Amino acid sequence: MRAFSYEKPADPAAAAARAAEVEGAKFLAGGTNLLDLMKLEIETPLHVIDVNGLGLDEITETEEGGLRIGTLVTNTALSADARIRRDYPLLTRAIAAGATGQLRNKATTGGNLLQRTRCPYFYDTNQPCNKRVPGSGCAALSEGAFSRQLGVIGTSDACIATHPSDMAVAMRALDAVVETVTPTGMTREIPLEEFHLLPGDTPEQETALMPGELITHVRLPAPVGGVQEYHKVRDRASYAFALVSVALIRQADGSGRVALGGVAPKPWRSDAADAELPNGASAVMSVLLDGARPTEENAFKITLAERTLAAMLKES
Amino acid sequence: MEFTKPVESNLFDNAKVVGKPMQRIDGPLKVTGTAPYAYERNDAAPDALYGYPLGAGIGHGRITRMDAEAARNAPGVRAVVTTLEIDPLEKGMNNVARLFGGDEVQHYHQAVAVVVADTFEQARAASALIEVEYEEGAPADLDLDAAFERVQGTGEPDTLVGDVDAAFRDAAQVVDQMYHTPGESHTMMEPHSSTVDWSGGEDMTVWTSNQMINWNHQSIATTFGIDQERIRVESPYVGGGFGSKLWLRADAVLAALGSRAAGVPVKLALPRPMVMNNTTHRSATVQRIRLAAGTDGKLTGIWHEAAAYCLPGGRGENATAQTPVFYAGETRRVKNHVVDMPLPETADMRAPGEASGLMALEIAMDEMAEKLGMDPVQFRIVNDTQVNPSDPDIPFSDRHFVECLERGAEAFNWSQRNTSPGGQRDGDWLIGHGVAGAYRGALVMPSGARAILDGGKLIIETDMTDIGTGSYTILAQTAAETMGMDVADVEMRMANSAYPVSSGSGGQFGAPSSTSGVYAACMALREKIAGNLGLDEAEFNGGRVTGGDTDMALSEINEEVSAEDAIQWGDFQKGYAMGTFGAHFVEVGVHAYTGETRVRRMLAVCDAGRIINPITARSQVIGGMVMGVGAALSEDMALDTGRGFFANHDMANYEVAVHADIPEQEVIFLDTLDAVATPLKAKGVGELGLCGVAAAIANGVYNATGVRVRDYPLTMDKFIDRLPAV
Amino acid sequence: MSPPIDFSLRRRTLLAGTAAAAAFSAVNRGGAAAQSSAAPAGPETSTVTLTVNGEPRELTVDNRTTLLDALREHLKLTGTKKGCDHGQCGACTCTVNGERINSCLSLAVMHDGDEVETIEGIGQPENLDPMQAAFVEHDGFQCGYCTPGQIQSARKVIEEIRAGIPSHVTGDLTAEIAITDAEIRERMSGNICRCGAYANILAAITQVAEESV
Fold it and tell me: Is residue B403 part of a domain?
């Protein structure tokens, strides 16, 4: 870990301004991913702006009947909130499926969205990685590489990493919106659908945030009801990232929404695939995973995704 | 004390302490965080500075240039030693790759530099400033399957009994299948750590985390070319080993070099992401097993050929270890091949050999039982043997494998299981039951101790380690029993090279050997006390010594009495096959849609002679069962064959079992005694608990789904497309 | 027998010219982010005040120092263990302001004014806390290295269930959560025990939970 200077501002706009002004600045919230990466010198901030003094740790009700979640609300607090449990159970299920009690006590809402891939080559600084060092190559795509956990769709020739979050998959299904403040003090809203970027030729660019821009809230629209489930598939029963996860909201008339985790560089969902839900898991996945480019090692994720949804739909 | 013949009767026949459940005497220290591990020796080396290693960034090749100037000039740095600055260090016992020195890179993350700084943060940051240029070695063929194809059938068999070809030609049923086990990483919770004071360049003290004090002691002397007398090694608390800490490793070497260079004591722990590739692991295996049987269910031929990899000159996993002796059968052919590959070093991991071998053999047994239409428990019973089937003049010293199977089947309600694969369902879960036999050799090693009676207190000194196995407690029990004293009056001093050499902890020989060594020392002490009192015969009971007219409390003996002895094993044991036996029963659930597999119930029945402490022995067995769940379902060192390293080198990506993976576990110890094994009639049990577990799970998955998976771990990617339609 | 180590630099002559001839050469640092010539904009150390096991402690730490290393290396409270240093094992679990966290993934400087409880504050060998005693009674450990973290988590798991914080295995999200084996196992899964004492740890926690109703 490189040496860095540290400050803990008290105002979100001031924090954003400082982030844009100080060379090599980085926001620090829960720290559960950033510090991990700093120890390995994958992240090397010169200046750390600790946002834990900004407030932003409340969940309030919006005029449209939804909820506005402060970026510093911890995963534990969010999953346990009575309104979330009652009206957005998918979100509670997804959060509880991720990480551990200890990590969820520190991990924050905004930080969870910003966590970086767990691709083992991204994590090993001896290996080429276009996300870590643009232009260095992708070890995961080289002959003999270990790619079982990596992405099957939305990937590129430069990067096949996945986004590791469970929470974000649920939020994508719930049509969440990210609220930010920019270094000039402006606020803006970014639908979660547009928040994470596909890698293309620039896998180092992961989100729509501008330099210094700070997430302040994540907003959930009014509850959509239905049966909400999150099925996370992994090798061991807990404390593991998803091989595949499926977030499902299913209405009484058979319509609904489906989002996938563990398969793509962002939570994976499409309106066209949602529209196929009444036609069953196979119909959904043939649309949702159309154009998938798996490796030999992770092609099973396509079958697995379909069978997982079939289980949730109780298809036989 | 020489152990020259089977025990007839001795004081353990009427044991009051040995064999009784007793809580760990080191428990209160461990649950309060006050037991000091190797990196925490503020009591002994409070001023130790911080060492941090740098590992090689290529699979194999040469270092052409290193530039450590920036690191040397970094804040707080006291010293940097790079591998180019010193000649290759002599290798210690069973080290295959050198631990430091020279320009050759033999495997990924081999240590190439150490930084010493005032703080941990400074040392870590400075290590990242060292530039290393490499010339990569020629690409290597790391395909073990291809290697097996090349070597299959070559070389002299390790065991060849009878006309195997005829047996297979004439068999009523034949199984012939390929099996794969992956590389496994010990993943003990405490990474390899050492604090070393070699600041003066003369005497060296090594506070380390090691299972074998004496081997380590010798290896340090060899590595640095200094007299063993000038080195002291201590490992009073070891945060897990499982074989990973049998040998000297880079943590101690780098801390020593750093201490010498900086002139201060240095502590160093291998960073977790470096542990998998820097240290040793259990090599993957490819195994072909052929079984031949008659209609009566008796095996007529066993053919086991396996391959594992290792660095040139090293040892791979010998997956055929159990095959010559475990089951009856008139003919057999057994051959293990070790294939050179430039990969991180392979060496012993818990139950080396049998752990991997039984993962395959016990599936093959299940397959044969099915072909024969026999219950897999009954099939194993039919093929029990009381003699070494490869050398029928050699009887087993004590073998109750059949009883393990029978007791287990009864306790597990085996007869009630569903016998048609895929036929039992609980909601979305397919339910299956599996059984496997367990075998692990019962090794013993010479082991010494010193017993000191001092004012009514008994002090035992031995270099034996406790790596979580319960040595502190069982040795205190053995000493108390032998001396007729209370355990509370025994003080254990262990894991220090200043004390008599013991067996150390490994190969499940630690408990039987070291308890025998303590028994020997205590018997010598008894003799000395009796002699001092002028008694020809004396009894030691209730804290008193009696004989003739003498009846006095041991606490009344004013002067310190000390005796040292060691157990030596007589040749008579070579006239016997010595082993430990068991049976594992599991219930598994396989998700009918996703193939997720979870274990729902586990039972182990163990035959390992006298169980010295049922509490700690049970913990050893359930711990082995947990490791078996990992081996069956998730543990897999992911080899990048292009880059020649294991890519999932941390605890997030190498998945050992967690709490949620482990169901109700039951352990039954058969009440057996092995008079050939040791004076306590005891054998080890810590590795037996792992042997066969994974195969029982694999057999349960087959029973649940009708899909046979012969490639570990049994992750859904290997069978999801074969699952029955839902 | 190798010669004694000589620390006067023994640079070997093989260096000259070989780099150019190499078929491929990699620079160890090449994969990490490039070293910036820029220096941090402010001080690289901070002074923080923590209340540790009830006692106020003022520390001047490198900003990089984790809470774990502050405890272990500055305060010499080595009961909190470093198993992986990356949030992958749980050995470093301690409580901050009443919640359990991985102290390896938190900077000391982030905890100014916080209340920290470590295993040393829970009980001592002669004065064990009920959970510590239950771990001894049920043999909820072997090597002991993950044990302080397990005990820290165990105590909080009971509280978390009683506080109604849902887990991955919780059934009805709007009902009261029962203390079941499945709930305990799932919530303890952030504490890995390679010795495999899980079943015994479950027994210890269950006993304490039942006794503290």
Answer: yes
Which residue out of B317, B481, B564, B687 is catalytically annotated?
B687
Are B666 and B540 found together in one domain? no
Structure tokens at A305: 């995704």
Across the interface, do C41 and A46 touch by the CB < 8 Å criterion? yes
Q: Which residues of A touch B721 (CB under 8 A)?
A: 300, 303
Domain presence at residue B489: yes
DSSP B146: H
pLDDT in tens, B271-306: 999 999 999 999 999 999 999 999 999 999 999 999
Q: Are A200 and A154 in contact (CB under 8 A)?
A: no
Q: Are residues B716 and B582 in the same domain?
A: yes
Last residue of a domain, one of B574, B603, B625: B574
CB atoms within 10 A of CB A48: 27
Distance CA A168, CA A7 (A): 28
Answer yes or no: is pLDDT of C33 > 80: no
Residues 121-140 of C with CB under 8 A from A: none
| Residue range A181-239, pLDDT digits in tens | 999 999 999 999 999 999 999 999 999 999 999 999 999 999 999 999 999 999 999 99
Question: Residue B521, Cβ neighbours under 10 Å: how many?
Answer: 30
Tell me the pLDDT tens digit for each residue of B418-473. Answer: 999 999 999 999 999 999 999 999 999 999 999 999 999 999 999 999 999 999 99
Distance CA(B377)–CA(B696), nearest Å, equals 11
Domain containing C136 equals 130-211
Return the structure tokens found at B178: 């390929």
For residue B265, give how far its alpha carbon lies from the nearest alpha carbon of chain A (Å).
23
To test the contact with chain A by mutation, choose from C95, C160, C181, C189 the residue with the greatest count of A C-beta atoms within 10 A, namely: C189
C-alpha B370/C-alpha B363 separation (Å) is: 11
| Helix H or strand E encompassing C115 | strand C115-117
Last residue of a domain, one of C121, C143, C169: C121
C-beta of residue B531 within 8 angstroms of C-beta of residue B490? no
Whether residue B687 lies in the annotated active site: yes
Interface of C with B in 18-77 (CB under 8 A): 18-19, 21-29, 31-32, 35, 62, 64-65, 69, 72-73, 76-77
Q: Look up the domain containing B686 and give its range.
A: 393-442+578-722
Determine the Cα–Cα distance for residues A228 and A247; give it in Å rounded to an integer: 8
Contacts of B362 (CB under 8 A, 6+ apart): B436, B437, B692, B695, B696, B699
Structure tokens at B329: 């059968």
Read off the pTM: 0.97
ipTM > 0.90, yes or no: yes
β-strands B285-293, B266-269 pairing: unpaired
Compute the distance between CA of residue C118 and CA of residue C123 in angstroms, rounded to an integer. Answer: 10
Residue written as tokens 């073998």?
A: B399
Same structural domain for residues B709 and B627? yes
What is the per-residue pLDDT across B685-710, written as a single tens digit (0 to 9) for each? Answer: 999 999 999 999 999 999 999 999 99
- Identity of the residue numbered C4: P
Tell me if chain B has a CB within 8 Å of the CB of C120.
Answer: yes
Is B680 among the domain residues?
Answer: yes
Residue labelled with tokens 């506070």: B207
- Helices C147-162, C198-211: inter-axial angle, 10-degree rounding: 40
CATH of the domain at C112: 3.10.20.30
Residue at B231 is within a domain: no
Does B596 share its domain with B715?
yes
Set of chain B residues whose Cβ sits within 8 Å of the Cβ of C104 = none
Write out chain C residues lying below 8 Å of B467, CB-based.
143
Question: CA B327 to CA B304: how far, in whole Å?
Answer: 12
Residues 6+ apart with CB under 8 A from B431: B418, B424, B425, B587, B588, B589, B600, B704
- Selecting from B37, B54, B625 the residue whose C-beta is nearest the C-beta of C145 gives B37
| C82 and C152 housed in the same domain | no
